[in-house]
Specification:
104 residues, mainly beta
Length: 104
Amino acid sequence: MGTALWRFADVSAHWDALMIRSYATMDGARTLYQEGPLAAMRHPDDLASRYGTALSPGTIMFCGTLGAKGGIRPASRFEMELEDPVLGRRISHAYDVIPLPVIS
């Protein structure tokens, strides 16, 4: 998880315009891994209504992700961002992958 967040009330009305994007570093090359609008996923209000109970303040809901371009593959680094083109802002986060040894 990143270190920033936005209040849902600030983005709910233009949720479908938000863009999700990620890059993976594979074999030393930074490659676009995922990209698309959140309109391609269910709106959080729809997911919450399916839960059957109102979500408590402070609740975090994971809403899924977009398919990986070229399929899921291993990478040495992963970068992700959520762009709000309406309010002109972006949240980004990245991490390096350290493979663990195979133990049998």
